[in-house]
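Task: sequence in, structure out. Protein: Aspartyl/glutamyl-tRNA(Asn/Gln) amidotransferase subunit C.
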Amino acid sequence: MTKITSDDVRKVATLARLNLPEDLIDTYTSQLEKILGYVAQLEEVDTEDIPPTSRAVEVTNVLREDIIQETDIREDLINLAPNREGDFFRVPKILSE
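Result:
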């Protein structure tokens, strides 16, 4: 594994548009080095016979079948409006011509 340098951290910070304080560069260099070490360990794990997954535990949706039902509440809903004009809701004008 390639060693991470302070210059690498500065370059990544610049690419990510992060303004890192100079006194924290060494801290971030050390932390990034450890993270990449963990990734290197994961690369050593044999996953040849393991199928790709997106979750550790399988999740399934509980779906119901859509059933089309006739309803006759249109007039009731329109009557709930504070102001109506025929089959439409009447609302205050918000745009000028």
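Strands lie at 84-85, 88-89.
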